[in-house]
Amino acid sequence: MDLLPWLTALTHLQEVAELSALVIFIMTPKAGRKNFLIIGVMLAFIVVIELGSWIAHDVFHVNPNVINHAYNLFIVPAFYFFYVDKIHSDRIKNRFLLLTITFLLFASINMIFFQGLTSVSSYTMAFRCVILIIFSSIYFGVLATELPRQVYVGLPIFWINCAVVTYFSILLPIHLFTDYIYLTLKLSIIPLWMVHNFVGVVYYSFVSVGLWRNRSLYTLQSSLHA
């Protein structure tokens, strides 16, 4: 069975989900966008990176992995700023900062000395997943400590956090075993990347739900003040 058309379809479906989340963010009243500005910046950055990768590969026929490294270096610091803005504990903030700096050092060393600029940085991507799983898991603890369950499950941030922990928990084993399956066993990684893209659709769908709930809150407030 030829899985490539299915992989292509899932890739395009993920792109639609990304753009949908970005459009919802843009449609949110200005006051509401401030709460999730980092998420909006991340969504826009991802669109730019994917467009740049497509141009590099399909137009100029060069390796797009150099461009993809920019995403790897950007995403953890971006989530650091997203979470620390919503956490009151200095102890937790300092732990997040230490993890972020550790990740950036690891990613830079891996990019320069080990996997290089032109290869898929699977070590960095796996470590990125570990860091973001830690961030989102700790934040679930923060929510559970500060608010009753029936309150925080309805918050937009809850859906964003669900997206993060679900997405990166499933991506972690994919990044850990891709090189082994492809380089050592010489097997196709298309099934793995079908799972990758399907989970991407789920991730951006959860993000969209969070952003839509946030938009609904501020759209209602704007209507009441009109």
Radius of gyration: 18 Å
User: Helix content range of the residues, please?
Assistant: over 70%
Give the ordered list of helices and strands.
Answer: HHHHHHHHH
Beta-strand portion reads under 5%
SSE class? mainly alpha
How many beta-strand segments? 0
Largest sheet: none
Overall mean pLDDT: 93
Shape: globular
Q: Give the terminus-to-terminus CA distance.
A: 57 Å
Low-pLDDT stretches are none
Short description:
The protein is mostly helical. The chain has nine helices and no strands. The longest helix has 36 residues, at 190-225.
Write a structural description.
The protein is mainly alpha-helical and 226 residues long. It contains 9 helices and no strands. The protein has helices at 4-27, 30-35, 37-59, 65-84, 90-114, 122-146, 149-152, 156-184, 190-225. Helix 1 packs antiparallel against helix 3. It starts with a helix and ends with a helix. The model has no long low-confidence stretch (mean pLDDT 93).
